[in-house]
Amino acid sequence: MKSECLPFSQIPHTTRLFADFLSDHPRVQQFYPRSAYFNQWFKDEASSMGHDSERRQRVSVILERQNQSWGASGKALQNIGRLRAGASALVTGQQVGLFGGPLFSIFKALTAVKLAEQATRSGIDCVPVFWLATEDHDLEEINHISIPGSDGSVQKLTAPTQGLPDAPVGTLRFGAEIQAVVEAAIELLGPFEISDFLREAYRPGETFGSAFARLFARLFADWGVILLDAADPEFHQIAEPIYRAAIERAAELDEALLARGKALEAAGYDQQVKVTPSSTLLFTLRNGARVPVHRRLNGNGTVDFLIEEERISQAELLGRVASLPQDFSANVLLRPVIQDYLLPTLAYTGGSAEVAYFAQAAVVYDALLGRVTPVVPRFSATIVEPKPKGLLERYGLRLPDLFHGPETLREHMASRTLPKELQSAFDQAEASLEKSLAAIREGLARLDSTLVDSATNAASKMQHQLTQLRSRAARAELRQTEVLSRHAELLSNLLYPGKALQEREIAGLYFVARHGTEFLRDMYDAIRPDCLDHQMISM
């Protein structure tokens, strides 16, 4: 493999908050207690951690039961034993996307393994934990996956499921129809070892969560990644004090979040989650669907809560939480706090959106746990296989050249394929024009400095016209060949599909199928916790 770094500042849609977190921690220190560099602080963080021993034991028992049911490896069960005995956790998590979801789900798990092993080698026993977001109710985000075909086109596969709208995805079971989707995926991926993994995991009767867990238990067996299904009723029973506190202290938490939102905006950053005076941090189940719990301030100064159209007193809501905690779940700002109430978390590793959530969730952490868990950026990469690599080299392209979309890419490629004599003529014209215009500006500056701006404007127009002429020539060349179009489409599909990073769109299993499970080892070896750039990895 060959790796090339691409700073996130060069990647479209990178938020200023994430960019500053990576490169300028003092600027964001009021929002993040630790920098993005794990090796700078993990020993200090470990020395200040504490976790209730009884809670640790209860969680470990549930984890053992869950992981055994998914066919966990001996290494995973050993890691649960280490957790029970006092190890800390390096946690990551993700929605339970079809067939393991996009490539970055694999990157998350491997980053957790890498950081946990780094801590353990330094004398801080630590195990990797993957939180399965089975309580999420956005089915359309997880019920499909994109797999490239042999011709470079990207095929989208969707799993048919039956269930209530807005139901937690962990409750949705596959019917017999899933078998046809599995076979369609195998036809695209090829008859490799991964085919058996898919058939064993995605079967009628399994849920999105259990199938995902079975697949990841196989993929990460050698590393012993501990999988955690957040929807388990026993976890909700343990987390009941946090649900209760989210209700009893709703006004305080809302005030803190509103203040944090204002502080973020004052510093020039956007809020990832918009908070209102009626917000709470909880969802509840209503007829099988997941609905938000709202807060309502009455004229007499008392507070009620709203669940859809039902008005309910605080006392009654607390009674429901006490009797049926499994009917409640956390929103995106409380979810990590629940996670770290259950687990002795040394750090959480996630993507840019999760890093942004933590800037707001920190005030909830501080109020409910008295400690803010640090967040660490996950490994991020684009995998460049031999065919797209050859095309990049042929046209003299780099990944950023793809960021402007397929149409612009085709024109750019066409400009690289113009006849050499015409290409040379354009280059000479540009150089000559710039040289002549520089001489003119210099002479005008001596003659009459007020004319320099006019010269600059005129120069800009002439350069624009020459650039336009080159583009028209490129388009003319483009019309004469379909090869460029096919090559541009292939590069876009494989490296920047749908104008998004490859890791967010293409199935991770696509690369495992093509390169074997050694692909996972190669990616693990490529992770360097001291390098937080996006990587271009040529296979």
Task: Offer a few descriptive terms.
five-stranded parallel sheet; alpha/beta; 23 helices; globular
What would you note in describing this structure?
This protein is an alpha/beta fold. It has 23 helices and 15 strands. The strands form 4 sheets. Strands 6-3-2-12-13 form a 5-stranded parallel β-sheet, with helices on both faces. It has a 5-stranded antiparallel β-sheet with strand order 10-9-8-7-11, with helices on one face. A hairpin with a 2-residue loop joins β9 and β10.
Record the strand order, biggest sheet.
Answer: 6-3-2-12-13
Indicate the mean pLDDT.
93
- Low-confidence parts lasting 5 or more residues at pLDDT below 50? none
The end-to-end distance, rounded to whole angstroms, is 5 Å
Helix content: 40-55%
The number of distinct β-strands equals 15
What is the 3D shape? globular
Instruction: Indicate the radius of gyration in whole angstroms.
Output: 27 Å
Q: Helix tally? A: 23
Largest sheet, in brief, is: 5 strands, parallel
Strand content: 5-15%
Structural class: alpha/beta
Set down the secondary structure blueprint.
Elements: E1 2-6, H1 16-23, H2 25-28, H3 42-47, H4 53-69, H5 74-85, E2 88-94, H6 103-121, E3 126-132, H7 139-142, E4 144-148, E5 154-158, H8 178-189, H9 193-201, H10 208-219, E6 226-229, H11 233-248, H12 250-266, E7 282-286, E8 289-297, E9 303-307, E10 310-313, H13 314-323, E11 328-330, H14 335-342, E12 345-350, H15 352-368, E13 375-377, E14 381-384, H16 386-395, H17 406-415, H18 420-447, H19 452-479, H20 483-495, H21 502-505, H22 508-515, H23 518-526, E15 534-538
Helix pairs in contact: 4-5, 8-9, 9-10, 11-13, 11-14, 12-15, 17-19, 17-20, 18-19
